[in-house]
Amino acid sequence: MIKITFPDGAIREYQSGITGLDIAQSISGRLAQEVVAISVNGDLIDATRPIITDSIVKLHTFEEKEGKHAFWHTSAHVMAEALEALFPGIKFGIGPAIENGFYYDVDMPNDTVLTDKDFQKIEEKILEISRGKHKVIRKEVPKSEALDFYTKKGDEYKVELITDLEDGTITFYSQNNFTDLCRGPHIPDTSYIKAVKILSIAGAYWRGDEKRKQLTRIYGITFPKKKLLDEYLIMLEEAKKRDHRKIGKELELFYFSEKVGLGLPLWLPRGAMLRERLENFLKKVQKEYGYEPVISPHIGQKLLYVTSGHYEKYGKDSFQPIHTPAEDEEFLLKPMNCPHHCEIYKCKPRSYKDLPVRFAEFGTVYRYEQSGELHGLTRVRGFTQDDAHIFCTPDQLKDEFKKVIDIVLYVFKTFGFEGFTTQISLRDPNNKEKYIGTDENWKKAEQAIIEAAAEKELKTKVELGEAAFYGPKLDFMVKDALGRSWQLGTIQVDYNLPERFELEYTGADNQKHRPVMIHRAPFGSMERFVAVLIEHTAGKFPLWLTPDQAIILPISEKFNNFAKKVANVLNISDIRTLIDDRNEKIGRKIRDAELKRIPYMLIVGEKEEAENAVSVRRQGQNDIGGMPVDAFIKLINEEVNQELKK
RNA sequence: GCCAAUGUAGCUCAGGGGUAGAGCACUUCCUUGGUAAGGAAGAGGUCAUGGGUUCAAAUCCCAUCAUUGGCUCCA
Questions:
Q1: A591 nearest nt, CA–C1'
Q2: Mean pLDDT score, A83-107
Q3: What percent of chain A has pLDDT over 70?
Q4: Which of residues 143-162 of A touch strand B (CB under 7 A)?
Q5: Whether A564 and A618 share a structural domain
Q6: The pLDDT of residue A485 is above 80
Q7: Do A553 and A589 touch, CB atoms closer than 8 A?
Q8: Are A429 and A570 members of one domain?
């Protein structure tokens, strides 16, 4: 007999060799139907594998991440079998489970091109295989046998994968007529898969290497219940409705013109006003934190970026230098604000008594992004960073870093990004050539970030090799209303630019010292932040920020004059107010205002005119009653104050 | 940059070798209506661009450009 400990601490005894499924069965028949994988002493394994020693066991259903992973991994295998049946001669790369579903990279036979017209027959074939209730069988194989299997099959991708594996660790999983190299774990049999959707196809380089062959990547998702698939598809529809490109067009916030150039957004009046409000919001916060505004031009001498190291690192992948006509001097479009700010620091001698100095600028920068990478406002070629650079003494670094964290947290709170995560990006210790700067400085910088984050009690994930080339960083990722993750704010420590620009301050000892620099952008860029905010709010911006706060809807044209009077009063009181004086019925005006996501609709007719009042309707709600104009102004002001409260 | 799909009116889209279509938006007229679409008429398009095939191309073929979904990249 062996002892099995459950997550709640309960211990039960079972025969040695019992499986996860048997354990589930001993608890309830229903559970046994739902368990798709188990963890034994922290290792995720098949629910059908025997357990032979005392163990801590956790049962996973599709509800859990681990269960989904096994479920989708098996689904990838089933899809592979379906593809092999439909397209004989197809070769397989890798086919993992991902956050939402799975994919398989395949090499289509004879250059067949797969299109979305093939999706349905693939789905049908997958369901046909699933219904067969084929057991998923695990088999450990020696490396020689594994190589032999795929060499005979003619699948060079799998052969390459196996060549890199160590003998003795190789396992195959089979279901029905299909065998795949796989670490597992997998669900017990194929019948768990009840609903499937092939989502999209895309090209993907073999092993992520653009020099190697491009395979076809097929994305799909499966569920143990049809209902779950339907819900997922509804969620996808919802995400599409929130797409910032769509809402940006509907609300006339920004526009892309082919003539202006790809990736170069044009901010329309309502978008520009919104952005201006965002900038003012941050300027106010920054002023409180002791930042000073600076302004730098959009181009700079090539030498500036040679000094900073950006030219060496990115020169080839940037917009190419601009030459002056007479002298043939070279200028670069500004890809970063920091070199300019370093020169501002150098404009006069600095004393330790002056530090820290904090230069802030909404600086527009230009970066050459590959054409295929451009995407709405989230990936553009010209964008404005809410940039600032803090120059401080090494002793001040941690405190300054913590103050920046405070600003970022305040920003996130104000905009309702509750579920953010943070990532500390450090240098890859095995690949130091990728970075500039001394080991000692890197060590100090990394240490400061780790400590500051810990002292601010941030839950961080540490990633090696993700640092910027000049220093480590702390990034903030927010999840929007649909749970998608976006990187926004960033804080980076930099010992290298002060070195390269030979920045100095005079210490209390009357000696020259080198300051440390912090780069930081709480929004990241105005473009990306607005995009994420649109998707997060579905275009229903907070009242203080939204382009139009109120719209007056006269019942008929007879009340247009009164409407103008009210609008005038409100606009004078800094409430951004429109009038809908079209020759339309009130129902129509309400509908259009709702679709424009204007927070307050003020209906005025005979009764309101007599009482100098408005009848108030909140967007997304119904009539919330009438009130005097003064009372409405108070209501708005209170709501705005509430939104901006610290 | 690479792979694939797409490109028809301001927007969303249907159509398809032989008069260019719908809904919304727009203009004018009627209507003056109390909480999510009042009615009528009108205007609006070199069917992305350039070539080719054809008696005839928006439709078929090729190239280019752009958009979308991925891949690679991301200071």
A1: B36
A2: 93
A3: 99
A4: none
A5: yes
A6: no
A7: yes
A8: no
Residue A343 lies in a domain: no
Question: Among the three residues A16, A36, A61, which one is the final residue of a domain in this structure?
Answer: A61
Q: Do A164 and A261 lie in a common domain?
A: no
- Model confidence at A481, pLDDT cuts 50, 70, 90, reads low
**Sign (positive or negative) of CA dihedral A170, A173, A174, A179:** negative
| A585 part of a folded domain | yes
Domain of A560: which CATH number?
3.40.50.800
Instruction: Give the model's pLDDT for residue A167.
Output: 85
Q: How many residues does chain A have?
A: 646
Strand B nucleotides with an atom less than 7 Å from a protein beta carbon: 1-5, 11-12, 26, 29-38, 65-75
Confidence at residue A303, expressed as pLDDT on a 0 to 100 scale:
93
Q: Is the pLDDT of residue A379 over 80?
A: yes
Closest CA to A484 of A249, A243, A254, A271: A243
Whether A376 and A472 share a structural domain: yes
| pLDDT for the residue A482 | 65
Q: Which DSSP letter does residue A394 get?
A: G
Residues 215-274 of chain A in contact with strand B via CB under 7 angstroms: 216-217, 245-246, 249, 256, 258, 262-263
The pLDDT tens digits of the residues spanning A380-418 come to: 999 999 999 999 999 999 999 999 999 999 999 999 888
Q: For A161-210, what is each residue's pLDDT tens digit?
A: 999 888 888 999 999 989 999 988 999 999 999 999 999 889 999 999 98
Structural domain ending residue among the three candidates A35, A61, A87: A61
Let me know if A385 is a catalytic residue. Answer: yes
Asked if this assembly's ipTM is beyond 0.95, the reply is no
**pLDDT value of residue A169:** 83
Q: Residue A259: pLDDT above 90? A: no
User: Do A127 and A6 share a structural domain?
Assistant: no
Q: Give me the helices (H) in A97-252, please.
A: 119-131, 143-153, 156-163, 226-241, 244-250
Q: Where are the beta strands (DSSP E) in A68-194?
A: 91-92, 97-98, 101-107, 137-140, 171-175, 178-181
Shortest CA to C1' contact from A625: nucleotide: B35
Could you list the residue range(s) of the whole structural domain that residue A565 is in? 550-644
Domains in chain A, number: 4
pLDDT tens-digit series, residues A304-361: 999 998 998 888 888 889 999 888 999 999 999 999 999 999 999 999 999 999 999 9
| Contact assessment for residue A467 and residue A425, using Cβ atoms and an 8 Å cutoff | yes
A476, HSE (Cβ side, Cα atoms, 13 Å): 29
Contact A338, A368 (CB under 8 A): no
In contact, A99 and A143? CB cutoff 8 Å:
no
CATH number at residue A146: 3.30.980.10
3-state secondary structure of A516: strand
Q: Which residues contact A612 (CB under 8 A, 6 or more apart)?
A: A628, A629
pLDDT for res A166: 87
Among left, alpha and beta (phi > 0; psi -120 to 50; other), residue A532 is: alpha
Q: Which two tokens stand for residue A82?
A: 């379906």
Catalytic residue among A68, A473, A589, A617: A473
Q: Are residue A96 and residue A178 in the same domain, yes or no? A: yes
Which of helix, strand or coil describes residue A268?
coil
